[in-house]
Amino acid sequence: MSGESAIAADFDTDMQTIRDYVRATVEVKSKLATAYLSAIDNFQTTVQAASPKEAKPDYLGAAFKSGMKAVEKAAVSAAKSATGADLGPLVDMAHAIYDEVDRAGKAAQTLSVSNWIKSTRSAVTNAFTQDQSGEDLRIEIENEYKQNDEGGRGGYIAGIQIELDAMRSIVSREAPLIPRVERVELAMYEGWINQNFDNDCIDGTGVIVVQYDDGALSSATVNAPLGEKIAGALNRVMSTAGVDQLMQLDVVKKMCDGDSCMCFEGNNEIRKQTLNEDAEAFLTSPQTWDLATRFDG
Fold it and tell me: For residues 292 and 220, is the Cβ–Cβ distance under 8 A?
């Protein structure tokens, strides 16, 4: 093969790599957005009866962002950890969704909860459907590629190949990184509870409360607006989302043994101790935590 023919063959191969990368990016973005938007729909069913005072735009916005952060952690961060690839298009999509949630929230002050959620969903849909065909992305990458000299093109396309492998890992049949809808939805409920935390873990709101009496689980509730609905929704999604006990939820927990209570952060570090040493030993025991797997009802 002549030198010119070899260069042309390499160019065609590089262009195919770019097309494959764009195709994979569009597929992953679509799957991530579908999981996220489906979670919003389920979240809406749970909280749409809330009053405007209970469901403030900034509270709902934080919940929606919590869902998107769960998507980023499950897919983008996990793929980057495994491959080192930055996955810029996926990060850009996430940040565009955060921006749209903020814009929708600022415009929602006079809307009902249901209409505010619908408005947010529409804004998020618009953010993710931009360049849904991937044509703009393809043109951008090809232009960047052509700006390099022959030596630089090899390094550039090697980077694209790394990101392509990372994109493929996200939708791999063996170990897919696309988060289940239930995991994204669960993150939204955690966000809802956390937004209602008022820094008083004993008597305040925004906590889950687990009560033990005489060594047995007595009750488990959500102390937040729409607490019963949020608890019911969490019961529905926890198992599928990979959460086996209430202490695995990323929210502040109030745990009581009779009248002796402790508080734990979302990561289960102790926030507030009890003076009762026996109660503390019981409430910090993994065996005790294993008893609380569902909320009442």
Answer: yes
CA distances from 223 to 139, 158, 260 (A): 51, 52, 18
Task: Report the half-sphere exposure of 4 (CA within 13 A, side-chain side).
Answer: 0
35 touches 180 (CB < 8 A): yes
Backbone angles phi, psi at 190, to 5 degrees: -60, -40
pLDDT of 32-45, one tens digit each?
Answer: 999 999 999 999 99
Please calculate the CA angle 107-111-114 and round it to the nearest 5 degrees. Answer: 115
Helices (H), the chain: 3-47, 57-71, 78-83, 88-106, 113-129, 135-146, 150-170, 181-195, 227-237, 277-283, 286-289
**Per-residue pLDDT tens over the stretch 216-243:** 999 999 999 999 999 999 999 999 999 9
Sign of CA dihedral 94, 97, 103, 108: negative
Query: Residue 74, exposed/middle/buried by CB under 10 A (0-12, 13-18, 19+)?
Result: buried
Structure token digits, residue 246: 């209430």
Rounded Cα distance between 50 and 113, Å, is: 7
Q: What is the pTM of this model?
A: 0.91
- List of residues 6+ apart from 248 with CB closer than 8 A: none
CB 215 within 8 A of CB 282: yes
pLDDT band at 296 (very low <50, low <70, confident <90, very high): very high
Give dist(CA 110, CA 57) in Å, integer: 10
CA distance 175 to 74: 12
Cα 45 versus chain centre, distance: 18
Give the C-alpha distances (Å, rounded to integers) separating 274 from 23, 55, 124, 206, 277: 56, 33, 45, 20, 7
